[in-house]
Amino acid sequence: MAWGLLLALCGALLAPAAAGGRHSLAVLVTAVTQEDGTHHYFMISKLDDVQIAYYSSDTREVRPTQTWAEQAVGAEYLQEKTQEFLRHEKGSKVETRWWMQLHNQTGGVHTEQVHVGCALSGQAPRDLRYQYAYDGRDFISFDAQTRTWVAAVQPAFAPKQSWETGKSYTQYVQQFLQSECLGTLRSLVQRGRAVLEQQVPPKISVSRRDAPDGSVIHSCHARGFYPRPIHVSWVRDGEDILAEKDSSGILPNADSTYYTQSSLEISLQQEDGHRYACRVEHSSLGEPTLVWAPGKMGPLSPGVLAAIVLAVLVLAGAVGAGVILWRRKSAGPRKPGYAPAATKSGEDSASSSSSGTDPRSVGPQC
Fold this sequence. Notes:
Elements: H1 6-14, E1 22-33, E2 39-47, E3 50-56, E4 63-64, H2 67-73, H3 75-102, E5 110-121, E6 124-134, E7 137-143, E8 148-151, H4 157-166, H5 168-191, H6 193-196, E9 203-210, E10 216-225, E11 231-236, E12 240-242, E13 246-247, E14 251-252, E15 258-266, H7 268-271, E16 276-281, E17 289-292, H8 302-331, H9 347-355
Antiparallel strand pairs: 1-2, 1-5, 2-3, 3-4, 5-6, 6-7, 7-8, 9-10, 10-15, 11-12, 11-16, 13-15, 14-15, 16-17
Main location: membrane
Region (Disordered): 331-366
Pfam families: C1-set (PF07654), MHC_I (PF00129)
């Protein structure tokens, strides 16, 4: 089957990851057949949560989305995989027509999806997967333990019988998952160690909202963290772990970090005498972090009111003193010989005495 070789490319492009821990390699394919027979084919490959390559009917070319992925496999390898995916695209048309026949369908819009992948926990293989879906429903999947196909719906028994009787395709899938997929994942994990070892701690905040019905809703926000896995829970008095009311799930940000929100609703009776906190566990934190929820704002005590009044008075005094100093500074220093203006009644005598001249000698003399 054409789908079987999907992981050959994506395994090589997908796989930089940090040493140790758990890492997964996945190829996700979607093929859509329109009513007029037009067939659209799209593939993305991912290592853990990082997209590293894609192919589509529009580009008709395998294109890496990470520079290190392109450098890891080389231009010749990409050209080879482009040719393979051109064949996969043609093969998907045949498979879609087969699924339509099995469902007694002659027209309409139909979607075939394939999820191929594997994972490593340390060096131990995990989650070998080769799974088909049709029109949004599970169709058939491969069980690597029993080496058999599991039909999810009645029409899938036809390919199950065909693949298990012929055996060649089943053997290919088994070998591919256990050898090529895991081998590619191991080698590229080593190459891309620095990429997935980065740790970005979450920025954590907790808010409170008093609902009209008298209940209290605490919301915990964890923003901008990487890698994706995170655990958020609620704690009462530092001990009792409580179930969350609502969660946004783990959502991606545009900068490749992640965001999540968790909410807890409690009654006023549950709040009395207790403190609540959001508990966040993430690989970047080292140990769990508690952020306490704000308490209810009650009436201010006389002592608190007195302190607030005193602070306001001190602030007002400081502002007033500052204004006076600023005005004096703006006026500048007095010039030498400066005297204040005389009053109206003594204006003439002050002027005469300042000049040192007898008033009677001013003007023409007779």
